[in-house]
C-alpha cells in the first residue's frame, strides 16, 4: 500500500562492474517536491532511470503513481514527465515541430501553456534545434514536458548550465506546477541553493547509498556549527550527533547533526565557553556530511 | 486548464544574504504588512501554496512560517479554508526579542575579546541608545 506516495522505493539495488546502488528506500509524497543531492557519480541518475523503468533493478520494489516498475512502465510514463541531460531533440526540426509531435501523442497537451512557457523561457518556436544553445535545449525539453501537465515530474539536473535569469524562470515554473497539490516533482541538482530554496524534502546520495533523507526545514534546523574556547584541562562532554570535531590550540569547532540548545549549558558546565553557534547552509552540511562519511569508510 | 498565476502579490521578499532561516524572514514580513495596515484584521492572506509559488520557496517553508504565526496569534489558519489575519493580531515582537538577546550576547563576547570592562560596555550601549533617540526627535 502506498497511499499518498507518488514514488516508493523499497530495498532497491543495482550492481554494475564499477558501481553499485544499494538498499535504496525512497518515499515521495504526492504534492511535494524532493531535491536529490549528490556528488558526481553518486547514483542520482541511476536511481532516476530505475524510477522511469529505463533500468531494471536487481532487487527491491519500485512503485510510481501506483504502477509497479519496470513492468507497468507504459502506463506510468503517460503520467510522468522526464527530462535528463542526454534527452535528444531532433537537430533538423524546429521547436514548433516538436510541440506538434508531443501534442499528437499526449491528449493532455496544452498549447496555451506551451506558448506561455516559450515566452517566459525566451524560446522561439520557429528556431531549429541545431542552432540552440545548451541552455535553450534544456528549456525546450522542459517546456515540452511541462505543457503535458504530467502528474509527476522527474528532472535530472534541470538548472545545470542555465544563466541566472533562466534559472529563476525555470524554478518559478516548477513552483507553479506545485500550486496543484496532486502534482509531484523529483529533481536532482548539484546546485544546493536551488534545492535549499524550493524543495520540501531532501535526499542526500553518496557512493550508491542514501545517506540522509527528510523534511528540509527540520533537517536544516538540526545542524549547527559550534565554536568553543576550551581552557587547558577541560574535556568536552561527548555530545550526541557530533559529525566532526576540529581542535586548534584552545579553540574547538564542533559540527553536530542533532543540535539541542541544552548543549550550550552542557559545555559551559564542563568548563568550556561557547563562542558561537551558527546555522549551516545546505552546501556546508552536504560537504561536511559526505566528507565525514567517506573518512569513516576509508578508515 | 492553464491559468495565469495568482495575482495576489504579497510584497514579501526573501533575501539570500540574510542568514536567518527563510521561514523567519516570511514571519517578520507578514507581521510588518499587518503592522503598517496593508493587511487588516480578518482579511484573507495568500494561501500557503500561493505564497510558496510566488516566493519560489518550498511549501513546507511557508507552512512553517504560517504555523508559527498561528501559534503566536497573528493569523488564523483553518484547514481547507486558507488563512486570515487574526481579529486582534498579537504582534508582540518575540522574534525581535530573540534577536536582541543574540546581539547582546555577541556584544558581550566582542567586549571580552577587546578587553572592554562590563561597565564600559554598558556605557557604550547607553550612548548608542541615546543617540538613536536624539536622531528620531
Query: What count of helical segments of chain A does DSSP give?
Result: 10
Count of DSSP-assigned helices of chain B:
5
Total count of domains of chain B: 2
The quaternary organization reads as heterodimer
Overall shape of chain A: it is elongated
* Biggest β-sheet strands, sense, barrel of chain B: 3 strands, antiparallel
What does this structure look like?
- The complex is a heterodimer of chains A (299) and B (137).
- Helix content of chain A is 34%, strand content 30%.
- Chain A has helices at residues 44-52, 73-77, 95-105, 111-120, 134-146, 164-177, 192-198, 216-222, 262-270, 282-298, and strands spanning 5-15, 20-29, 33-38, 59-64, 67-69, 80-83, 152-156, 184-189, 201-206, 209-215, 224-229, 242-248, 251-256, 273-278.
- In chain A, strand 7, helix 6 (164-177) and strand 8 form a beta-alpha-beta unit.
- Chain B has a 3-stranded antiparallel sheet.
- Chain B has 2 domains: 22-85, Arc Repressor Mutant, subunit A (Orthogonal Bundle), CATH 1.10.10.10; 94-136, no CATH class.
- In chain B, helix 2 crosses helix 3 (59-71).
- Helices cover 55% and strands 7% of the residues of chain B.
- Chain B has helices at 22-35, 48-55, 59-71, 94-114, 118-136, and strands at residues 44-45, 75-78, 82-85.
- With 137 residues, chain B is mostly helical.
- At the A-B interface, helix 4, helix 6, helix 7 and helix 8 of A face helix 2 and helix 3 of B.
Features of the shown structure:
heterodimer; A: 299 residues; alpha/beta; Rossmann fold; Alpha-Beta Plaits; six-stranded mixed sheet; four-stranded antiparallel sheet; elongated; B: 137 residues; mainly alpha; Arc Repressor Mutant, subunit A; 2 domains; three-stranded antiparallel sheet; 5 helices; 55% helix; disordered N terminus
Give a short overview:
The complex is a heterodimer of chains A (299) and B (137). Helices cover 34% and strands 30% of the residues of chain A. Chain A has 299 residues and is an alpha/beta fold.
Amino acid at each position: 500500500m502506498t497511499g499518498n506516495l507518488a514514488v516508493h522505493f523499497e530495498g532497491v539495488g543495482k550492481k554494475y562492474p564499477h558501481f553499485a546502488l544499494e538498499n535504496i528506500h525512497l518515499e515521495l509524497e504526492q504534492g511535494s517536491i524532493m531535491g536529490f543531492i549528490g556528488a558526481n557519480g553518486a547514483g542520482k541518475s541511476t536511481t532516476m532511470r530505475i524510477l522511469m523503468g529505463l533500468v531494471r533493478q536487481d532487487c527491491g520494489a519500485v512503485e510510481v503513481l501506483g504502477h509497479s516498475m519496470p513492468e507497468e512502465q507504459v502506463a506510468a510514463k503517460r503520467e510522468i514527465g522526464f527530462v535528463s541531460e542526454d534527452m535528444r531533440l531532433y537537430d533538423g526540426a524546429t521547436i514548433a515541430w516538436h510541440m506538434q509531435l508531443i501534442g499528437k501523442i499526449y491528449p493532455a497537451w496544452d498549447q496555451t501553456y506551451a506558448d506561455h512557457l516559450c515566452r517566459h523561457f525566451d524560446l522561439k518556436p520557429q528556431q531549429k534545434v541545431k542552432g540552440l544553445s545548451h541552455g535553450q535545449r534544456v528549456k525546450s525539453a522542459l517546456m515540452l514536458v511541462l505543457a503535458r501537465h504530467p502528474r509527476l515530474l522527474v528532472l535530472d539536473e534541470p538548472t545545470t548550465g542555465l544563466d541566472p535569469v533562466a534559472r529563476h524562470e525555470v524554478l518559478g515554473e516548477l513552483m507553479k506546477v506545485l500550486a496543484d497539490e496532486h502534482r509531484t516533482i523529483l529533481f536532482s541538482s548539484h546546485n544546493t541553493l536551488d534545492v535549499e530554496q524550493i524543495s520540501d524534502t531532501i535526499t542526500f546520495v553518496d557512493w550508491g547509498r542514501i545517506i540522509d533523507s527528510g523534511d528540509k526545514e527540520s533537517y536544516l534546523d538540526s545542524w549547527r556549527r559550534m565554536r568553543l574556547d576550551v581552557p587547558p584541562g577541560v574535556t568536552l562532554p561527548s555530545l550526541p550527533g557530533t559529525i566532526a570535531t576540529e581542535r586548534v590550540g584552545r579553540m574547538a569547532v564542533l559540527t553536530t547533526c542533532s543540535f539541542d540548545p541544552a548543549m550550550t549549558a552542557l559545555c559551559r558546565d564542563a568548563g568550556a565557553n561557547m563562542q558561537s553557534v551558527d546555522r549551516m547552509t545546505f552546501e556546508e552540511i552536504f560537504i561536511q556530511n559526505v566528507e565525514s562519511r567517506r573518512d569513516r569508510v576509508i578508515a | 486548464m492553464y491559468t495565469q498565476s495568482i495575482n495576489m502579490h504579497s510584497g514579501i521578499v526573501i533575501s539570500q544574504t540574510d542568514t536567518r532561516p527563510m521561514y523567519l524572514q516570511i514571519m517578520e514580513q507578514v507581521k510588518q504588512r499587518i503592522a503598517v495596515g496593508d493587511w487588516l484584521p480578518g482579511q484573507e492572506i495568500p494561501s500557503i501554496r500561493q505564497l510558496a509559488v510566488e516566493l519560489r520557496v518550498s511549501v513546507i517553508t511557508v507552512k512553517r512560517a504560517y504555523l508559527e504565526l498561528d501559534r503566536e496569534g497573528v493569523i488564523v489558519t483553518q484547514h481547507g479554508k486558507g488563512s486570515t489575519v487574526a481579529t486582534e493580531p498579537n504582534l508582540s515582537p518575540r522574534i525581535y526579542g530573540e534577536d536582541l538577546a543574540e546581539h547582546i550576547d555577541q556584544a558581550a563576547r566582542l567586549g571580552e575579546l577587546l578587553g572592554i570592562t562590563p561597565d564600559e560596555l554598558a556605557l557604550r550601549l547607553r550612548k548608542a541608545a541615546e543617540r538613536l533617540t536624539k536622531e528620531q526627535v
